[in-house]
Specification:
This protein has 128 residues and is mainly alpha-helical. 77% of the residues lie in helices and 9% in strands. A two-stranded antiparallel sheet has the order 1-2.
Length: 128
């Protein structure tokens, strides 16, 4: 990397060329090195502007997926809370947690979970 930098500086210092742009009644004259720097900087500016536009176009999708991930994370936490409550024998809290998780994930497995909870209640000697 250092050798590449040294080579670029050496080539730029030995370059005495210039660029002349004539558009009547104007006339621009500047060094060739300055033109190369302008080309590189304009390429980088265009590249990052296009990346920013792409980021802005993808922003609603990224926001939706982030909200979806947060919702799924909250539903997993509610299910975990329900399992802890079920293991402790607190069936009412477990049922509330399952209903909350169902509201979060909108899944048809709610009936299966409620049936399993009812079966566990019956096994323990409690009636629904």
């Amino acid at each position: 990397m250092f050798c590449l930098l040294v080579a670029i500086v050496w080539l730029a210092s030995n370059n005495n060329g210039y660029v002349l742009i004539v558009r009547p009644p104007y006339r621009l004259q500047f060094s060739f090195n300055f033109l190369l720097v302008l080309i590189v900087l304009s390429f980088l500016a265009l590249h990052y502007c296009l990346r920013f536009v792409h980021y802005l176009r993808r922003l609603p999708v990224n926001r939706r997926s982030k909200q979806e991930a947060q919702r799924l994370q909250a539903s997993n936490a509610a299910l975990l809370e329900g399992m802890h409550a079920l293991a402790e024998g607190d069936f009412e809290s477990a049922e509330i947690a399952v209903r909350h998780a169902h509201d979060l994930i909108q899944n048809v497995d709610h009936e299966k979970l409620m049936a399993a909870l009812a079966a566990e209640k019956n096994k323990q000697g409690f009636f629904v």
